[in-house]
Amino acid sequence: MLKIIVLVKQVPGTDSVKLDPITGVMVRTGKDTIINPLDENGLAEAIRIKNAYPDVTITVVSMGPPSAMRAIKEAISMGADDGVLVSGREFAGSDTIATAKVIAAAIKKTGTFDMVICGERATDGETGQTAAMIAHYLKIPAQTYVSGLEIIEDGVIVRRTVESGFERVQVPFPVLVSVNKDISDTGFPTLSGKLKAKQVQVPTWANAELGLDTSELGLMGSPTRVVKIFSPKLSRDTIMAKANGTMKPIDELMAFLVEKDVL
Predict the structure, then answer these.
(1) pLDDT tens, position by position, 130-149
(2) Distance (Å, rounded) from C-alpha 26 to C-alpha 13?
(3) Which domains are present in the chain?
(4) pTM for this prediction
């Protein structure tokens, strides 16, 4: 039997990313939220493996506000078996380090597993740090920028995208892989999947279930934080020279380049 944990994160839509100007943390209470696109690619790959091999189960784990339950239900409607939501006020404001500690604790609580799959980064923070940190706290190997997976006995062969091209690495179970968009095409919910998602009871775990040191959670337990955010201001003036059938615009451009010592 092969047990796969898929990490999914509910993120704001690309046009709806907002930061709290006081705390500097991401605002995650908006209604325009989606599953992080690269996590969807990871989920699609897990479902592909489930369809190709016998005795494969997929458990989705997500950390976020109560509204993140929608992401888990959507993942189940696409083919996952069950899920867990990690949610609590004590986790609010967690940086990548605190987040990794919480998710690693949740993964351990699900029981024995063979592989953790997640996107290489999230579209809201774009740090790309959390996956490797989770592997660190789980004390398992991590493979990043994975664009292909081949299941073998007691392990997996991954195809990693690197600067010089690709490399193939054989890793034993358990292992964490963070994937890029080339790993698998994203799928769609099915009717049977939607019916299953309505019936599956997804538990919500707070720190009462995980038993972590509260001093290592949330803003208090985050050694990194955003201290200031602002909108960049353009300080350059644009000079528009419109073509009018004469040489005047060209002469103006040449004069400008000479003035700036470009020519």
Answers:
(1) 999 999 999 999 999 999 99
(2) 13
(3) 2-216 (3.40.50.620)
(4) 0.79
